[in-house]
Design a protein that fits this description.
The structure holds 3 protein chains of 3 kinds. Chain B is 38% helix and 21% strand. Chain B is of the alpha/beta class. Chain C has an 8-stranded mixed sheet, with helices on both faces. In chain C, strands 5-6 form a two-stranded antiparallel ribbon. Classes of the chains: A alpha+beta, B alpha/beta, C alpha/beta. The complex binds thiamine diphosphate, iron/sulfur cluster (3 copies) and magnesium ion.
Chain lengths: 68, 381, 272
């Protein structure tokens, strides 16, 4: 198991995000939160890059890149 | 069947089925209905033998949808029906018009409306072939008047459909569909068979609904490397829906222009004019058989006639009718309905002559003597 | 990250669907499933009817056909007959497939023609503003059921099973990973296959029935979903308000176009 705490990357494509809240609901670690019409990353350290947010975003608006 | 003229005794429905095979039809989807069912029956037998496919669908709506799909997948495709089924096809027929998918729809007319007179002839669907589906749209409608002509016009129907990317209706009536005639079929090897115009450019540059000089975009089948979108929504040159006024105008104008501008190539008729004739007759389909006899009898009696017998009812031969109207006092229009075409003739003749209707709707053909009587009465005026 | 761009017409984004509509989740699942099948884009024809869900065909880079309301399966049947070598996928809604297109749906199943139907069940007519559909449950409100729906609802999957389909599965947008597998299997299956996908329409169904936003409706799907395996051990009454998910039917039987091709071959050999 990797111990070094390197952050994963979460990219929100604002032109595509409809602020639907789905990714927020799916995230097990409260990494994301709604901020007006789009979603925002509020807790990147907690992100495990599980990919649930990206998997369920209907609009291709969130991309998670695992930090190896 | 190859390479020689054949003398055969056959019905109109048989001639239609065999003509379709010769034209290259390789997909038929249909739903049985009198008096068209024999076309489906014969094609269910013939098609698999020549590498084609037949399917009996669950209804006429499905049949029309299936032939559009089949045509997009690369086959020359046809369906056949009669009035009630033709009514059901209208929405998808409009789709074929708008999406410019070539296909042939045979309508063997029977008395209507509704279930009407299933086994008796009529010409009651003429306006429905023109305006049955909603919206302005292009369509070509052919009306054979004999068995050999059914064969010829079936081949032509496919040629026109492929050439202009338009649905073509072969409109017969029960008399033509069921009459047995001795016919000499044309030499198949000498027939012109039109294939769809494929794009010559690579897929990246391909615009499925391109504005071309000819107004007819090239057509490529699904699965041949040119992936594109087909929709019943009004679309731009790329094939995707548009709400832009300019693009809507451009598309709908091209769509509706594409048949009208080739009217002269499409319209096929017999125009026989006795010098100095005061009486004109405009006929089509089975009624032109009665008209032909009446004209012969009238000529025997020394009455001069200007006869136009058309094989193409839509686009309408309005110019030929106007030319006739300018030179005669009367145009007689015999038809097996209450005067659907007579109104069109009245419009085309622009008040230059009087239009005389002869109508019959009781399931019997018009008697040539009835036409002769009208001719004589008019001649003595 | 999965490369959706490979299959998307990127210039058509953003998707037309409302915020929180589940249809985009199904779209993505379909693309992942297609990718796993290894099929090339040229081999795939995707055919849809009319409805919100049916707009999907505009976004994907296959041979796409957006037809008339209810008729996608009929058009697809024509494509499959003429080019059996193509993989033909139908995208349709609950109204599209089981109201106006119900006849085509059951007859394609009866024929067992090799089409894959992805049926977006949102219990409502989304596109036209929330009228009652054949899958709107009794008592629920719709713009044409202002006093609550008096009608019974269809079991869409059951309909396909009874009519003769080879493969029937039910999934939800909550469990997208499972959905991928179902769709992949459905595509690879020779014969008529249906994947019924439970997907929320927050705008035309959720709001009127106070079900919350799309995200909430999706989370609620989890609560009512029961796997087929688990359902098998439950009493009928316990399953009343549940959605049974998983592969409901998977059988091998003769496929329509294969049969027809065999017949053609036989007849053509005879005439040689
Ligand atoms: C012949 C015809 N009738 C009615 C309509 C109007 N219409 C368009 S979509 C639709 C219902 C769509 O509902 P569904 O299939 O469930 O798709 P959804 O929008 O929910 O995804 C209706 C009734 C139409 N386009 N064509
Ligand atoms: S799921 Fe997608 S569209 Fe919805 S809020 Fe998250 S990123 Fe935005
Ligand atoms: S990848 Fe997982 S942990 Fe990270 S934000 Fe998305 S859902 Fe949350
Ligand atoms: S109306 Fe309903 S089904 Fe249509 S896009 Fe909006 S949420 Fe989706
Ligand atoms: Mg719906």
């Amino acid at each position: 198991m990797e111990k070094t705490k390197k952050l994963h990357k979460i990219e929100i494509i604002e032109e595509l995000c409809k602020g639907c809240d789905i990714c927020v609901q799916f995230c097990p670690f409260d990494v994301l939160a709604m901020n007006g019409p789009v979603v925002e990353v509020v807790n990147l350290e907690k992100c495990t890059a599980c990919g649930l947010c990206e998997l369920h975003c209907p609009d291709f608006a969130i991309i998670v890149t695992k930090n190896k | 069947m190859e390479n020689q003229k054949q003398v055969r005794v056959m019905t109109g429905n048989e001639a239609c089925a065999e003509g379709a095979i010769v034209a290259g039809c390789r997909f038929f989807a249909g739903y049985p209905i009198t008096p068209s069912s024999e076309i489906a029956e014969i094609l269910s037998y013939l098609l698999p033998k020549v590498g084609g496919k037949f399917i009996q669908m669950e209804d006429e709506i499905a049949s029309m949808g299936a032939i559009i799909g089949g045509s997009l997948a690369g086959a020359k495709a046809m369906t056949a029906t009669s009035g009630p089924g033709f009514s059901l096809k209208q929405e998808n027929l409009g789709y074929a018009s708008l999406a410019e998918v070539p296909c042939v729809v045979v309508d063997v007319m029977r008395g209507g409306p509704s279930t009407g007179l299933p086994t008796l002839p009529s010409q009651g669907d003429i306006m429905q072939t023109r305006w049955g589906t909603h919206g302005d749209h292009p369509i070509i409608v052919l009306m054979p008047s004999g068995v050999r002509e059914v064969f010829e016009l079936t081949v032509r129907a496919f040629n026109l459909a492929e050439r202009y990317r338009v649905p073509v209706v072969l409109l017969m009536d029960e008399i033509i569909a069921h009459v047995s005639e001795k016919v000499t079929l044309p030499d198949v090897s000498e027939l012109e068979i039109v294939e769809r115009t494929k794009p010559t450019i690579p897929p990246e540059e391909f615009l499925p609904y391109q504005m071309t000089e000819s107004d007819i975009p090239p057509f490529v089948s699904f699965g041949e490397g040119y992936r594109y979108h087909v929709t019943g929504l009004v679309h731009d040159e790329t094939g995707f829906p548009t709400n832009n006024n300019e693009e809507i105008n451009r598309f709908l104008n091209r769509l509706n222009r594409k048949v009208i501008r080739y009217k002269d190539e499409i319209i096929e008729l017999e125009n026989e004019k006795d010098e100095g004739a005061r009486i004109g007759i405009f006929s089509f389909g089975s009624t032109s058989r009665s008209a032909r006899q009446a004209i012969a009898m009238a000529r025997d009696k020394g009455i001069k006639i200007h006869s136009i017998r058309t094989k193409v009812i839509w686009p309408f031969p309005d110019e030929q009718i106007l030319e006739m109207a300018e030179n005669v006092d009367y145009i007689i229009v015999p038809e097996l309905n209450f005067g659907q075409v007579a109104h069109e003739v009245e419009w085309a003749s622009r008040g230059k002559c009087e239009v005389i209707k002869i109508n019959r709707v009781d399931g019997e053909p018009i008697n040539p003597l009835q036409i002769l009587e009208t001719i004589e009465k008019l001649a003595s005026k | 990250m999965f490369n959706y761009e490979k299959y998307l017409r990127m210039d058509k984004l953003p998707l037309i669907w409302c915020a929180g509509c589940g249809d985009g989740i199904v779209l993505k699942s379909m693309l992942r499933a297609i990718d796993r099948t290894g099929l090339s884009k040229d081999e795939i024809a995707m055919v849809s009817g009319i409805g919100c869900s049916s707009r999907l065909t505009g976004y994907v880079d296959f041979n796409t056909l957006h037809t008339t309301h209810g008729r996608a399966i009929a058009y697809a049947t024509g494509i499959k007959m003429v080019k059996p070598e193509m993989t033909v996928i139908v995208v349709t809604g609950d109204g599209d497939a089981t109201a106006i297109g119900g006849n085509h749906y059951i007859h394609a199943a009866r024929r067992n023609i090799d089409l894959t139907v992805i049926l977006f069940n949102n219990h409502i007519y989304g596109m036209t503003g929330g009228q009652v559909s054949p899958t709107t449950p009794g008592g629920f409100f719709a713009s044409t059921a202002p006093y609550g729906n008096q009608d019974n609802a269809f079991n869409i999957s059951g309909l396909a099973q009874a009519a003769g389909a080879s493969f029937v599965a039910r999934g939800t947008v909550y469990d997208a990973v499972k959905l991928d597998r179902m769709i992949e299997k459905a595509i690879l299956k020779k014969g008529f296959s249906v994947v019924e996908v439970m997907t929320p329409c927050p705008t035309a169904f959720g709001r009127r029935n106070r079900l919350g936003n799309g995200a909430k409706m999706i989370m609620d799907l989890k609560k009512v979903s029961v796997s087929v395996e688990k359902a098998a051990k439950m009493e009928v009454e316990e399953l009343n308000d549940k959605i049974v998910t998983g592969i409901l039917m998977d059988v091998d039987k003769p496929e329509y176009t294969e049969r027809y091709l065999k017949l053609m071959e036989k007849l053509q050999n005879q005439s040689k």
